[in-house]
Each structure stands twice: as C-alpha cells, then as structure tokens.
Amino acid sequence: MSAGNVILTGFMGSGKSTIGRILAKELNTYFIDTDNLIEYFENRSIKEIFEKEGEESFRKKERYCFEWIKNNVKNTVISVGGGFPVFIPEIKEAGVVIYLKVDFDDILKRMSEDEIAKRPLFQDIKKAKELFSKRDNIYRQLADYIIENRDIDGTIKKIKGIIDAS
Ligand SMILES: Nc1ncnc2c1ncn2[C@@H]1O[C@H](COP(=O)(O)OP(=O)(O)OP(=O)(O)O)[C@@H](O)[C@H]1O
Ligand SMILES: O=C(O)C1=C[C@@H](O)[C@@H](O)[C@H](O)C1
Ligand SMILES: [Mg+2]
C-alpha cells in the first residue's frame, strides 16, 4: 500500500471486519479492528461495556482509539465500529475512507443470531433499521469512496483498484 491507511466504514454487518482482515492479508500489511482493539484494551466485550458503562463511555473509548491510530498507525487496513464515523467525523484525518454500503435487508439475511447478540444497538430490528437510515447520509458524506452491495471478492477487487489508482 503506497499511501497511509485504508479505513472501512459502514453499518453493523456491512462486512468491514470480514473484508478488512482478508484485504490486509492479501496486501501483506497490518490490520486493526477498532472494536477488537477496544475489547483487547478493556479485556471485556463491547456488550459488557455497553451494559456496565453505557454508550457514551464506549464512544469515549472509540475517540481514544482514533487519536492513537492517527498518531501511531500507518500503512494499515482499519475496520472501524459501525458508529465510529458518526461520532468521529474527523475520521479522514487517519486515512482514505471507504464506505461499504449494503442494503438493510441484505444485512439482516447475512447476520446470524449469535452475531446479532454481540451488537447492543442491533437488539431491536425496527430501531436498527431507523439507525441505518439516519446514518447512511453521514457515511456517504464522510467517505472518499463508496462500494455498494458487492460480495466479498467483488469488494476486495474494488478496494485494490482504489489503492492502485491512488
Ligand atoms: N460481502 C459480504 N457478503 C456476504 N456476507 C458477508 C459479506 N461481508 C461480510 N459478510 C458476513 O456478514 C457478517 C457480518 O460481517 P462483519 O462482522 O464483517 O460486519 P462489520 O461491518 O464488521 O460489523 P460491525 O460494525 O458490527 O463490527 C459475517 O457473518 C460475515 O461473514
Ligand atoms: O453501529 C454501532 O454504533 C456499533 C457498531 C459495532 O461495530 C460496535 O462498535 C458497537 O456495537 C456499536
Ligand atoms: Mg466489525
């Protein structure tokens, strides 16, 4: 990867973690997932953080993560949490931002019950859908590139094209 970091954004279940991990391997570079990083630093799950301390506290931890990444991380594929760009609109300062846009119904089809259980803001499907609609605009505005409704291979191919051209 020639330039700095590649940052994947999008709603819960849009594939940021899955795609990011594969992409980093294929590019032979580093991979960071902010949700995993927070769980590692805290030695507990996001679900537990939300339950014990609430969302606001989680967002502070994301902010800390962002500052750390901005100051210390280069040439890395970074998958951020679904709300990360919403609460940290300066996200572009840390790299090229790619929004993985997937329709809500497709997200629902691909998420298992176990995966839904790990996501505190996905417990009520109606509320999750409203959140999805509210956030789409924000993701779009903060993205350098948008990739819509592709399978895993197609998404990775597109991202590689973006990296090669930049
Ligand atoms: N392009 C894709 N096509 C089909 N299924 C996918 C695709 N990308 C990811 N998946 C599947 O969707 C599920 C959720 O993906 P993933 O955990 O990567 O989402 P995420 O964007 O990181 O979500 P979160 O913001 O909650 O961390 C996984 O089971 C994954 O295998
Ligand atoms: O969309 C969100 O706000 C979230 C998405 C997940 O990746 C986690 O960061 C957490 O569950 C919150
Ligand atoms: Mg993820």
UniProtKB/TrEMBL annotation:
One of its GO terms (molecular function) is ATP binding. Substrate binds at residues 35, 59, 82, 135. CDD domains: SK (cd00464). One of its GO terms (biological process) is aromatic amino acid family biosynthetic process. It catalyses: shikimate + ATP = 3-phosphoshikimate + ADP + H(+). It is found in: Cytoplasm. Its EC number is 2.7.1.71. Signal peptide: none annotated. One of its GO terms (cellular component) is cytosol. SUPFAM superfamilies: P-loop containing nucleoside triphosphate hydrolases. Keywords: Amino-acid biosynthesis, Aromatic amino acid biosynthesis, ATP-binding, Cytoplasm, Kinase, Magnesium, Metal-binding, Nucleotide-binding, Transferase. Binds 1 Mg(2+) ion per subunit. Mg(2+) binds at residue 17. Its main location: cytoplasm. ATP binds at residues 13-18, 119. Belongs to the shikimate kinase family. Monomer. This is Shikimate kinase.
